[in-house]
# Entry
Amino acid sequence: MSSMTGLLLANAEVAQQAGGHHEVSGGVTALFAVLLVAMIAALALEEKIHAKKSVIVGVFAGACLVLATALDLLPFGAVTLPPLAGGSAGHEIEMPVYIPAIDWGVITIILGASLFVEVTSRSGVFTWMAISLTKKSGGDPWKLLLAYGILTVVFSAMLNNVTAMIIIGSLTGVSLTKLKRTDLLLGFLVVEGLLTNVGGLLTLISSVPNIIVGGIAGIGFVDFFLLAAPYVVIATATTLWMGRWKFGIRGLRGEEERAAAEALVAGFDENESVPSRKFFWFSIGSLVLFVAFLAGQSVLPVLKELGMGFVALSFAGLVLIAYKHEVDKFYQAVDWDLLAFFAGLFVVINTMEHAQVLAVIGSGIEAMIGAGGNLGTGLLLVASAVASSVTDNIPLAAMLAKILKNNPAEYSANAPYWWSVIFGANLGGNITPIGSASTVVAMTIINKHKLPLSFVGFVKLASLFAVVQIVIAVAYVVVLTMAGVLSVPSG
# Structure
């Protein structure tokens, strides 16, 4: 996480340098805002345009870069790196302006985790886990959704929401295929994608916005967990119940259905897909270490500097050794369209930042704080969620946290406004399929299974869940404020 935060801070400094050249006119900001809206519209019409997401975003990224360069919005020249060990001066390197705009932490996590899952799945470990879990559920779809939903939240809190979605999505596909219930796969994957962002609220280090806002506000790890955990439990239970209702994922009814399901799962053999016991146990050990290292990365020496992406790529390289003569097959299995999409999206958002589009959003949100009391708290949370559904929640969270920090009221760590930004920045990712990395991954898995769900279709399905989650979050923060757990200084 530290490397991703460091990249954010570096980008923020670059943005400040760029802003120092000249003031950005309102017309320029409006022009880039229109481009952002046009890109979202193009993504919504992806099927009618007959173009991949990466191509759509790539075109807009190129247009944004050309316009931003012509209007002198972007910083060019050498990038100064930190001083070398024992050195007195920083090292300068030439770097294209769009390179630091990309969040390479996210890119390397997706690449590393995808390769790791692809290789270890060859050992049968994920099939073994999925079948074992399916047998324990007795073939009951509702019990299976409960199990995968809770696992999604735990994995999102321990690891990161992208890795959680990749692993849980793989297990879900195996389970429902074995049960011959692929008609439920869309519902499972949508619910799991939504729960990744709920799980990202559980701890201070579960997501980058948590780290940024919590660090600026001075919220401690234990205090963060104690305040966030009740909401995560409530939101998880509500999301699972809504998923059951929305997608018709009901439990088994009557002795006849239970007997038929038990007879079906009794014929499942979790060991049938294990070609080599040696590689199977090697994969089990690698998976346990992978989870452990990702969970402890933020506190482990060396790794806390190198970041989660390094951990993911290292473990991918470790398991690739087992297939060192045919690694090209696994490289072909990587979703390069997904990686290209993220790279282009980061470039677009970075130019929006330099064009002051995010600043305008932030200014509007800052005005909402002036409403004061519970109204200001609720407006800030909702506005943060809406804004983060179409922009990168990392710079948005950093900008809003800075606004709060510089407020004359000098909000303390228990001010409700900090939590409005935290909840809004995380939950806004559930409104659109580009709102967070995990929802993008969920959509990619859905498309991989050739399930019928478009950009607009996702918004129609997910918006109800997101609205309920956000309403619960507003009510939760207001109740905590009224109870005195959170408080706004009178000055």
Notes: Residues 1-21 have pLDDT under 50 and may be disordered. Residues 104-336 form one domain.
